[in-house]
Amino acid sequence: MRLVSFVERDSPSVVRTGVVVDDVVVDLTDPSVALPGDMTDFLVAGPAAIERADDATRSGARRLALDQVRLRPPVPHPAKVLGIGLNYAAHVAETGATRPEHQVWFNKQRTCVIGPGDAIEIPRVSGQVDYEGELAMVIGRRCRHVPAADAASVVAGFTVLNDVTVRDWQWRTPTWTLGKSFDTHGPTGPWIVTGDEVGDPHRLGLRTWVNGDLRQDASTDDMIFSCWEQVEYLSTVFTLEPGDIISTGTPAGVGMSFDPPRWLVDGDVVRIEIDRVGTLENPVAVEPNP
């Protein structure tokens, strides 16, 4: 199942939840389905909401063509956006870093989240803006102390995330948070794909293009710490909640790895494709004047 948050083009202020079937969005807020229009509230409703959403795809619930809607971030207002650093062996090698013994985590402020087609902004304070194509997990239920063997049961599904990073600001602090959290630097989408459709998340091809130039071409089997180990590690420390986004790391081929570095510039288009999950595309533009 592909779960989305969307707005109708003639009513852009009302965000709804839906299921994409082929090129059609089934509106889950239709009175015949009556599910929440906010994705976090939908996930809080648990398996019953998933079952009703599945039933809605075979019912007479309201349908809209994809070209009639604008997809928003699948979780427009996540409580947490967490990213793991140095989690692909080839990426560790290209940075010259030491392979981590423990998981290296940072947070991206939730205000960085944007959706498909929204512009990644080059901030006025830096030109060192980099892309990082990543597979992200969306947490489906409140949980703590989840063993890796049970981690799949707390993940609602998977999406694509571009962990956009302002490199000079990243290195200003050991937590990396400032360089990871500029507004518009968390593109996610286009939807949440449930685990039954994704299968093993550690056997997925991941590719990133900038203006049609293939920059990243890898498999998620190059992860050092698996998706399930990540859930176990984080939930050892704090409670994970429905709608939390966990981004699982980027493979080799980021812009800073080139000589000279290939930073994003005004007019670029970044496209990230992950097998069985989807394609996320965003233009790049200069930050507008306040």
Protein described:
With 290 residues, the protein is of the alpha+beta class. The chain folds into 2 domains: 2-72, Fumarylacetoacetase, N-terminal domain (SH3 type barrels, Roll), CATH 2.30.30.230; 81-286, Fumarylacetoacetase-like, C-terminal domain (Fumarylacetoacetate hydrolase, domain 2, Alpha-Beta Complex). Helices cover 16% and strands 35% of the residues. It has 7 helices and 19 strands. Strands 1, 2, 3, 4, 5, 6, 7, 8, 11, 12, 14 and 17 form a 12-stranded mixed beta sheet that branches. Strands 9-19-18-15-16 form a 5-stranded mixed beta sheet, with no helix packed on it. A two-stranded antiparallel sheet has the order 10-13. The model has no long low-confidence stretch (mean pLDDT 97).
Q: Gyration radius, to the nearest Å?
A: 18 Å
The CATH class designation of the largest domain is Alpha Beta
Q: Would you list the SSEs in sequence order as H and E? A: EEEHHEEEHEEEEEEEHHEHEEHEEE
Q: What is the 3D shape? A: globular
CATH superfamily of the largest domain: Fumarylacetoacetase-like, C-terminal domain
Give the uncertain stretches in residue-range form.
none
**What is the level-2 CATH architecture name of the largest domain?**
Alpha-Beta Complex
**Secondary-structure-derived class:** alpha+beta
Remind me, CATH topology of the largest domain? Fumarylacetoacetate hydrolase, domain 2
